[in-house]
Each structure stands twice: as structure tokens, then as C-alpha cells.
Amino acid sequence: QVLLVESGGGLVQPGDSLRLSCAVSGRTASTRAMAWFRQAPGKERDFVAAIIWPTASTYYADSVKGRFTISNDAARNTVHLQMNSLKPGDTAVYYCAAATKLSGKTSRGAYDYWGQGTQVTIAS
Fold it and tell me: Which residues pair with residue 79 across a beta bridge?
């Protein structure tokens, strides 16, 4: 059992930054990948970023590469998503996800556990 709770969302202007956090509890030693997905109204839940252990390799969607950074604390009980140069198109509910088996890093079906989501809105 892995529990994920997101925080850090809010309303910001284009060009601003936000740092999302995902608190992880439970069987953290069982996790092999952590990821962020996002979903805008009327759209699919899309991959944003992932980090894979034990290599700590990171992966990003083309739309956020160079602007977003995924990272984790040493104990793997917190995962962050630093979002810079935010655009209106980044507006969505952002979800944290965890996988206990390594497969399909960018696919929703690869992840076993999901948080409730945190709203990120970029508007003037």
C-alpha cells in the first residue's frame, strides 16, 4: 500500500514558477518509478515527468522539457515537480503516481497508485 498526497498548486501568471510536492507514505521501498501526470478539462490525463530507481533516470514530455524538473528527497518520501516558465497551456490538475513494477514509464496503466491531484492554473 502506497499513499500519495499532492500539494503546492495554485494560481499564477504566465512566466511564473510553482513547485509541486508529493508526499509518499507506506511501502516506499516497493516503488520503482514516480511520475507526474496532468489533466485539463475535457482532455486525457497526459504524462508530464517520471523518475526511475535505482538509476534516478528522469523522463519528460516534450511540452515541458527544459522548463520542468522532477526530483526526490533521499528517503524517497517526497517527490517534487519544479515548474518554471509556466504557460496557460500548463493549466491542469496535476497528479502524482507511483509504480511498483517498472514498465511503460509514460503510460497511465504502468502506475499502481495515484494521488487526488492538485490544481494548477496559469492565467493573466
Answer: 22, 72
Identify whether the C-beta of residue 98 lies closer than 8 Å to the C-beta of residue 108. no
DSSP-derived 3-state class of residue 56: coil
| Mean pLDDT of all residues belonging to the chain | 95
117 closest CA partner among 41, 36, 49: 36
CB atoms within 10 A of CB 85: 13
Query: What does the alpha-carbon distance between residue 94 and residue 97 come to, in Å, rounded to a whole number?
Result: 10
pLDDT digits (tens, 9 = 90+) for 60-95: 999 999 999 999 988 878 999 999 999 999 999 999
Say how far apart CA 60 and CA 1 lie, in whole Å.
Answer: 26
Question: Residue 79 in 3-state DSSP?
Answer: strand
Q: Running DSSP on this structure, what letter comes out for residue 54?
A: T
